[in-house]
Amino acid sequence: MELHDRPAETTRMTKPATPPAPAPAPAPADSTHPTAPAAPAFGRALCAMITPFSGSGGLDLDGAQRLADRLVSAGCDGLVLSGTTGESPTTSDTEKAELVRAVRDAVGARATIVAGVGTFDTRHTVELASDAEKAGADGVLVVSPYYSLPPQDALEAHFREVADACALPVMLYDIPGRTGVRIEPDTLIRLAEHPRIVAVKDCSADFLGAQKVLARTALAYYAGCDEHNLALYAVGAAGYVSTVANAVPEHMRAVLDAFDAGDTAEAARLQRRTAELVESMMASGLPGAVTAKALLGDLGLPAGPVRPPLRPAGRDTVAGLRAAHDRLTA
């Protein structure tokens, strides 16, 4: 695998290979969203999609296509595949590429596809990025290398090496609670100088740091924790990458739509309405992949089991998730 000698494709640095869905209508002139771009890097309402499995645990490509079509039809501008919610640690390289191809066939040019390719190995990450490009992804999601705890200079070098070798735009993924290492704001500011590093998915819970990056870079900043969607959007973020959107894509997008229409009170009300389901799915002590699949399965949507070492949600948890869902959607 050639890691460093692939020519840069400047026409793809800031625009995905497959055209995204049409950008939402511009906000009114008196909108309070200070820096909302006309066309964020990958859209604004993105779903961190689960990876459906069959009853026997294999990849359910038909289910993935049906779920992807539903999510996009319900307002998702983009789909992030093989991320944390997509159980990327337990899917093979071949499965990851097959998933991108299947979802691309299902949604066509209606939405962007961002493929999770980050690992704890720089060389392997580069290989997965190449696979994602060939499979039809519009961009790649690159998480901090986990377990090895690289210092900031090594972390920066890792991201630069991946971006140098990849022809697709890159979304960095800052989730220190899982990786054990933070992408510090100053590191993000330096990385923003790279022409193919165009976005960040933020799960750091550092609101001040986020504003620092927003003030000093042109990175498309995405909330990675659903409880922060509106707060980050209000200070100039591009949108969100949402796990909860697997179940209620319309309700998550409605928050941004209300804000862009200038109705900040309604946006706040809609955000607060999602809080019970967000808490049930994301703060119950179970990973979001477990709760999302449990709820989708109970709703009769493609999901299937989680792969070990994850375990399925218990009956009481499923009942609580469904009750919170039904109260939100009533």
Short recap of the structure:
With 330 residues, this protein is an alpha/beta fold. It has 13 helices and eight strands.
Characterise the protein shown here.
This protein is an alpha/beta fold and 330 residues long. 42% of the residues lie in helices and 11% in strands. The chain contains 13 helices and 8 strands. The protein has helices at 61-73, 93-107, 122-135, 152-165, 176-179, 185-191, 207-216, 229-234, 249-260, 264-273, 275-282, 288-298, 315-329; strands spanning 45-48, 78-81, 112-116, 139-143, 170-174, 197-202, 220-223, 239-242. Strands 1-2-3-4-5-6-7-8 form an 8-stranded parallel beta barrel, surrounded by 5 helices. Helix 4 runs parallel beside helix 6 (185-191) and helix 6 runs parallel beside helix 7. The chain is globular and about 50 Å long. The termini are far apart. Residues 1-39 have low confidence and may be disordered.
SSE map:
Elements (H helix, E strand, L loop, with lengths): L44 E4 L12 H13 L4 E4 L11 H15 L4 E5 L5 H14 L3 E5 L8 H14 L4 E5 L1 H4 L5 H7 L5 E6 L4 H10 L3 E4 L5 H6 L4 E4 L6 H12 L3 H10 L1 H8 L5 H11 L16 H15 L1
Parallel strand pairs: 1-2, 1-8, 2-3, 3-4, 4-5, 5-6, 6-7, 7-8
